[in-house]
Amino acid sequence: MNPADSGAGAGAGAGAGVGVGVGVGEGVGVSQRGRGAAEEVSVTPWAAAEPLVVAARSGDVLALNDLLELLTPYVNRLCRPIALTDTADAVQEALIAVFRGLPKLKDPRSLYAWVRTIAVREAVRVAKRASREVPVAVDDCDGIVGLLGTRTTTELASEVHDVLRRLSSEHRAILVLRELEGLDEKAAGELLNVSIGTVKSRLHRARDNFRKAWVR
């Protein structure tokens, strides 16, 4: 990917029908492409990203393209429950921000935490400017459905669509960070640039509003 065309490349990745992405630290099968290895090898997200980050920071355009492609499902997974109908825009904005900020990333090993911060902030920003909102995809509701204390089923997850649509973008963001990403209150507060007290308040209200909307 030509750096000058980063927006177009990121948009193409965001628009593709990617499913639920990988979480930080999860094992994921990735193809070691273009670096002399033809076979599929199951590696952790960081192990797959590390050589690409190093090469991309050194100006390797192909490595940058591969890195953005690797990150797209994870970014999509974070943005979709927050930005709703504008997921593609949020993913594209997040990937562009990653492209622009990669040379300034101080610790490459913090890549996924850094990308998570960018993705959630961009998703909230895009959601706020959106003129309308629609439900999220069924596959992205599994973690949030756990708030109900009920085992997830396709039918149950489908009904979560309308409930999430009634929550604010800030409340959807805190639910994603706590229920899907498993961040503690301190980490969530640092990511959202708010105090722990604000995190607790938002989380309480988000969970309460979710449950109230559910029983209506």
TrEMBL record:
Taxonomic superkingdom: Bacteria
CDD domains recorded: Sigma70_r4
Entry keyword annotation includes Transcription: yes
All residue ranges annotated as the RNA polymerase sigma-70 region domain in the record: 85-132
Classification via InterPro entries: RNA_pol_sigma-70-like (IPR039425), RNA_pol_sigma-70_dom (IPR014284), RNA_pol_sigma70_r2 (IPR007627), RNA_pol_sigma70_r4_t2 (IPR013249), RNA_pol_sigma_r2 (IPR013325), RNA_pol_sigma_r3/r4-like (IPR013324), WH-like_DNA-bd_sf (IPR036388)
Keyword list, A-Z: Sigma factor, Transcription, Transcription regulation
Domain RNA polymerase sigma factor 70 region 4 type: 159-207
Family the UniProt entry places it in: Belongs to the sigma-70 factor family. ECF subfamily.
Protein name per its UniProtKB record: Sigma-70 family RNA polymerase sigma factor
Organism: Streptomyces flavofungini
